[in-house]
Amino acid sequence: RNDDLAATLRGLDGQSYGRYKSLTGDWPAGDATLTIVRVQADPFAPPSRVRVTLPGAAPEELTTTADRRRALAGFLLRRLRRALRGTSLHVDAGGPEVLERSAGRVAADGTVTIELGVPMPGPKRRILGREAATLLGETLPDAVADLRWSVFSEHDRAAATGFVETVEDAVALRAALADRGLVAFVADGAVLPRRSGVDDRPLEGATAFRSPESLRVTIPTPNAGDVTGLGVPEGVTLIVGGGYHGKSTLLRAIEAGVYDHQPGDGRECVVARDDAVKVRAEDGRSVVRTDVSAFVSHLPSGEPTDDFSTTNASGSTSQAASMVEAVEAGAGALLVDEDTSATNIMIRDGRMQQLIETEPLVPFVERIRPLHAERGVSSVLVMGGSGDYLEVADTVIMMDSYVASEVTGRAHEIAAQGRARVVEHSGFPPVTRRVVDPSSLDPTGRQGKRRVTARGVDTLTFGEQDVDLAAVEQIVDRSQVAGIGRALALLGEGVLDGTVPLAEGLDLLDAELARGGVDALLSGGRDAIDLALPRRHEVAAALNRLRSVKVRELLRD
Ligand code: ADP
Ligand code: MG
């Protein structure tokens, strides 16, 4: 066949839409290759998938480590998205987080691969050859050529390098946490608040973060040198303060700190351990055979609480389940905000204790210390409404008009004076390990076709089910949802064999993702969708919300 794609497209003008399929395959485009990976069946279907391969295009010093390659890919995607603005071509460059994603990859040999969504024009189910030729023969190659030129040019080379170095520094900061006994780090000068709930750009005119001297630490980074800021210690940390003083904003920045952020975001040097997990109440969710006995001693229905299932959890039981599940999946720190917690799982005051003697709930305040002492899981908790936690906190940070100070000493004094109630520390039982039935993770839909689709950041379609992920707050990108769906399918296809506990299955998944990257979630060269690598914690969270999931066995120590 003619190897001129544009000429071929012009030749197809007016033919039936289905003939676009004949273009599937590789097309030379200068020293790049353009691959038509998948063609949509009709003009209303999701866009066709086109891959551009640029051999050896990446500057060598920006490809020396996997983190540098991920960052460079992130930079290139963002540049390309900007260049293609106003066209019908779509590139999945993501939000402020720099995630490993299928849309853009940089290989160790410098080969750059970019995948785009291209809606093939043909509104009347006839090929619009000239228009398609312009899209794939001019718009796309021109943008790619510009991108290539710019990465080598003086000006953009600096921007690319800055982007890569920013990500590299965040990785270094995160890696330094464990040795210093920290859960998170918030750099001085960081801008934490976002413009709005639907706009994740930094708030203009915000008060820059400044660490309290007593909790200030300095961490060296490879590019920015020594970075100074707040070190949030392991153990139990409380964030207190008046309403609207910036408590939740600080916690949200810590939640987001499991990801690296692009330059200009304001949170470039805000990091958290990568096993820090936000948990919250979520009434209505399903719970499948979870041992919630650490938080629920008995139920009025007489159901066992060490093997608890429901299709419709209450606020408190949902939060109890989410906490236990997070620990089961390997969380090293729980992040909890009073704004999204069930009051009765957090606190119970002395008066209520007197009035209600048959309360089945064991409030978190009684478990939070043993959770750390016995299970090694730290907590960072926003709590402005109850003083019960003052005596159990190792560290108390106060937010006052967006300014942080440490008030641990004063908090302990107050706790020692007027004890509202005596907190019993009753230990934290070993977490029961569930063995999940892999056949219950099958995404095959009714028509025998595999259905794994992200619908925004809040919903995963998995087979015939819609999994509600709205309360899994550290999911930040719809491509992560697609990645989570694929990861669940992978767990079901053999990573879980019906005998290994879930946590071990997640270890195996992590190993496979570390080895294969996003390719581990894609099956074969024709399989090309926008997805981003998820954390094990979000994969587990989705599994736990899958209503069809079956647990074969509970393993107890
Ligand atoms: P709290 O949880 O203490 O009630 P929030 O964290 O929800 O308070 O913050 C209240 C408001 O203040 C939000 O609109 C937030 O965007 C804004 N805000 C938070 N931190 C800052 C800051 N450093 N500078 C300016 N505004 C901020
Ligand atoms: Mg709040």
Written account of the structure:
Helix content is 31%, strand content 21%. It is α+β, with helices and mostly antiparallel strands and 557 residues long. The protein has 3 domains: 5-152; 276-417, no CATH class; 433-555, no CATH class. The strands form 7 sheets. It has a 6-stranded mixed sheet with strand order 13-16-17-11-18-19, with helices on both faces. Strands 1-2-3-5-4 form a 5-stranded antiparallel sheet. The protein has a 4-stranded antiparallel sheet with strand order 9-10-6-12. The N and C termini lie far apart (66 Å). The mean pLDDT is 94. It binds adenosine-5'-diphosphate (ADP) and magnesium ion (MG). Adenosine-5'-diphosphate binds at residues 192-193, 203, 206-207, 241, 243-249, 399, 402. Residues 192-193, 203, 206-207, 241, 243-249, 399, 402 line the site of adenosine-5'-diphosphate.
